[in-house]
User: Fold ABC transporter ATP-binding protein from Roseburia porci.
Amino acid sequence: MLVVSHVTKKYRKVIANNDINLTIDNGQIGILLGPNGAGKSTIIKCIMGFLKYDGQITVDGCSNKTVEAKRYMGYVPEIPSLYPNLTVDEHLEFIARAYKLKDYKEYKEQLLERFELQDKRKKFGDELSKGMQQKLSICCGLLPRPQLILFDEPMIGLDPHAIKELKKVFEELKEKGCCVLVSTHMIDSIEELWDTTYIMKDGQIAATVDRKDIGETDKSLEDIFFEI
Ligand code: ATP
Assistant:
């Protein structure tokens, strides 16, 4: 379970996140929806512990800064951060070693197949197209099977097949009881997958929309988003 309480992040004079509160239970998908510059990537980086911030963030009751919490967490960044001189296969083997994974080979093969990288395994990071880099970055994030996984704009640059596979991955993570947070600025990319959507604007959570609330009104998520 992820709990973000009163998180504020300033980059000098810019308030990128202003008193952010959000909770995602295990087995749930939370969406951060907002336009460019709304503060989505910043809160994801705060949750991962990459940035200093004011406030509190816990993962299954532990501070996100603890080793216990870090073991639970996975991250797929907005811009893939790959090693130009490692091949596709070497990237995944590197992750497996870094996380001391056992019994990962079959899952690695499944991921390569799902994201159509099985024929690219000998290609170096800088030989991949942008979409292929994004697919490899997703595979790297998934390989350690994190309990909490954060995806920052994961659909960007993906072809329709990969988008379909990624949506299936979201469903599977939910079924397995994982806690998933996905940032996006494209409302139609998230369809029916989410449990709670946090609409962000100017660094704040402008609205929290639960799926059950949508059923009780005539308004769609899109209507609510454009009203804000
Ligand atoms: P996008 O959809 O374009 O990725 P976002 O919602 O993820 O946007 P952030 O990247 O979190 O938004 O940026 C929030 C605010 O913080 C913006 O005003 C941005 O200009 C500012 N910002 C982000 N990173 C930095 C930085 N390293 N230094 C200064 N300001 C920053």
Q: What stands out?
A: Strands lie at 2-11, 14-24, 28-33, 54-59, 62-63, 73-76, 148-152, 179-184, 196-201, 204-210.
